[in-house]
Every structure is written in C-alpha cells, then in structure tokens.
Amino acid sequence: MLDHIQITVKNMSKSKQFYAAALAPLGYSVQYDKTPMVGIGAEGARIPALWLNEGDAKGTTHVALMAPNRKAVDAFFKAAVSAGGRDNGPAGLRPDYHPTYYAAFVIDPDGNNVEAVCHELA
Predict the structure, then answer these.
(1) How many CB atoms lie within 10 A of CB 36?
(2) Which of 11, 15, 44, 112 has the fewest CB neighbours in a 10 Å radius?
C-alpha cells in the first residue's frame, strides 16, 4: 500500500503552481509548504501523499493518483494542461489495462508523467 511519493523538481515555484492547479479537481491541495519541501494531499488526509523536493531533477517519475470519478479525470487533464503540463494521453478508457480503466496523462514541468485514474464504471 502506498503511503507517499516524493519527486525532485527543478523549480519549486513553477512546480507547486502546476500541481496545485492540476490536482485540485482530484481533491488535492498544498498542505505543507516549508522550504525545501512542499506536501500535497487529499482533503481530510492525515499526511500529504505527494511531496515535491527542489533539486537536480535527473530522472523522471510516473505518479498515478486516484480520481473519484471520470469527470474528475477530465477536469484534471484540462487543469493540468492549462497549468503548463504537456498532453501525454487525454482522458479516456484504456481497455488494454482493464475494461473500466479511465485515465489521463500529462508531463509536468520537469518531465514527470502524472496520471489521474478512475476504475469505476461510467
């Protein structure tokens, strides 16, 4: 079971703005903001699930965050692209994963692949 994920970002200000906007439709917000770390978590969570740490971002990470429904996946994709993310797969079914796998993918400002996914029926 996943507790949290930490990714290294090159520009904290730019990345914090991107993630705050992109993940708001999924119910996430900035919950911790003290240099050099930013923690982003779901409303009501005890601790943030996604941590940003400013540094030399050499590799890339894939982060998949649960969305409560397909509408939230759609909103995530629009918000993430509007916040500067690059389209890496628009919202839609991915039946090759499983019949109800509905997801959207964006590349964040540091090249990380961020996914919102819902496994529920339409």
Answers:
(1) 9
(2) 44
